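User: What would this chain look like folded?
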Amino acid sequence: MLMTYPFNISANGGSPLYIRLASSMKTAIETGCLLQGEMMPSSRELSKTLGISRDTIVKSYNELIKEGLIYTQAGGGTFVRAAGTAQDSVHNNALDLTPSSALSSFARGQLRRRELFACSGDHSKINYGAMPNQFLPLGQWKELLGRHLNKKDCQALDYDSEILGFRPLREQIAMYLRRTQAVEASAEQVAIFNDSQNAIAILAQLLIDPGDRVAVENPGYGTAREVFRSYGAEVVDIDVDEEGMSVDALAAEKGPFKLVYVSPAHHDPLGIKMSLPRRHKLLLWARQNCSYIVEDAFDGEFNLGQAATPSLFQMSEDNNVIFVYSFWKTLFPLISTGCLILPADLIAAATRLKRHTDRSSSMVERCALTDFLAEGRMERYLTKLKPILRGRRNALIYELTRAFKTGIAIQKESGGLHFVAQFKIERTAKEIMAVAEECGLPLATTRNYYASNPVANEFLVSFAVIEEAAAGPLVRQFADAVLNKCDKR
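Assistant: Here's the prediction, encoded as structure tokens.
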């Protein structure tokens, strides 16, 4: 489905099309429809949406770049000019915005902060990190939606009186996570949200006071980092090694932490699974130095070819782990429902907060998801896909390694629907990205996952969208262009 954007190209019909589009984009920026630091759509995406040529889009972007309204970041896309950044070289009154005195200090802080897009869900080039549409259980989902809409009593249209979410779905999620994620929890501990980002925002409201210290992974999920910071937390970036977040680096940071945010099942973006000894070490450290661990089970279903490891939630003896789960990776865009598995002492406060911040949802979708889990369809769906995904992953890694030899480093032990590759060749990230887009190889930079010192020429590579038989020809075309033709451009 194509995105919609607030651009009107019908006005001022006497002007060239690229001028009209640039003018509309400028208006969107000045009126706040496009915020400072926000990523602009790619020329390819906008061309499809508006039905005009990519050349026209590029000419419009060039006009805005000349005016200092947008800027390009090597390997990272095009962004609305963020005030106070190193790229600022043009003073423009339209962007020298003073937030209204009527806004809260929280809102003013949001306007000042430069947004960093640092999760796979922000990258259209890798299908937003989600399952390729060709694999989605569309027929089953349509059947389940129809089942509940056709019922005479039509309970799916009722208002859900349960603040923490539809009770039958909470029960099914608890059982599903027990079977698949080694999480022993009751339905009472499950709180359902429209997505996992809402869940993390609720956690920040629930636990963070200004000045509280929060440890996050570096590189890591930028949205979590920014959410905690927006509620006044002092965010401490902790480096990740081949076993996950470094507990030694955590221990070197003297003083207590309110919480530690980790993704042990599948680190975003590196794909690393936290080792069992490292999990024990983290839990031991947390016993004396931290109030809560937030365990984000990002991509937990897709540890392809790796043995299952117990969750921190299950391993903890201190009742101090909050488990975050989402159906984004498996079922988006059919549904993006997320949930928290809460320790018992947080349930009452979380219920009170959720009453006012995340109450409404589509009951039809929740009923369909309940049946999808209860009837074992989710497990059958994933079991069928895993051999296909494993084959596609292995094929793409093999072809890239064969083509680039020592010129590429790939994180071998990783899960998810993408892997991380670093190109060790005399090419810029911008050159690599441009060739990848021409050839159809889905890459997205990891640059903004890093709080500092990003790894040069490191990219997320989506293998899920590339058939095994297509991997060889695609990689040969890409490698030939990168290694031999860039110099001729």
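The chain has three domains: 17-105, 133-379, 387-488. If you want, I can go into more detail on any region.
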